Amino acid sequence: MQWYEDDTFWVDFAGALFSPGRQAEARRWVRTSPLLRLPAGATVLDLGCGPGTYLVPLATGGARVTGVDLSAVLLDQARTAAEAAGATVRLVRADMRTFVEPDTYDLVVSMYTSFGYFTDPAQNQLVLHNVRRSLVPGGRLLLDLFSKEVFARWAGTPKVVDVDGGTLFMRDTILDDWTRFRSDWTLVRGDTARHGHFEQFVYSAAEIRAMLAAAGFTGIRCFGGLAGEPYDHRATRLVVEATRAGQPEVTP
Ligand SMILES: C[S@@+](CC[C@H](N)C(=O)[O-])C[C@H]1O[C@@H](n2cnc3c(N)ncnc32)[C@H](O)[C@@H]1O
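Predict the joint structure of the above. Result:
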């Protein structure tokens, strides 16, 4: 089993990954981000929606939202969160490598570094190709990543943070000449310790631009966050906007 297929990873580290603070921050970004501004009734795909962090506020904001995720447990949490918020959402359990709904979405979002999980680079490229096909002409992709430039300032020293009644120790290892990285996490709560790790690609802005161009996107713009700030030495995220140009695809 690959690490991202393991539901226990997402559940056991939920306090760090999907904290109430992150949920509140997502609600704020959906209200205020110029990159997430949408006409009423816009169709949105949240690829790797997790427990509904962005999915639910996007739906309560008036978008018609589909959430796709591989994790049944996280999809259940997204359903519960949507019900609690009185939001209507469509949830699909699927792998982003195969999920395509041609000419359907005005916006596709991939939030909180939900991209670059597959060891074979062609599979990550395939995800971008699928996204372009699922967008309507003129539709946009927003990719929110922990980029290579940002990661270079972060990696190097182990990190310790307080989470959800415990302490999380994080140690990163760069793999394959800065192509990928491995992160080892240990969550200590009282007398118990839960260890987990994940590995993924870490992309520079130039690398992700090239991948998006190869997938047929145009209008590629890089930002340092969801406020639309510049992607410069102060950036704490890499948020990339890319547009599907052209006419609807013709199916023979
Ligand atoms: C870091 S979490 C981010 C979740 C959410 N976007 C957020 O902002 O909280 C990554 C998500 O991608 C999902 N995921 C991992 N591999 C996937 C795949 N092959 N296809 C679809 N979803 C996947 C995970 O289950 C998880 O919900």
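The chain has two domains: 3-147+202-244, 150-200.
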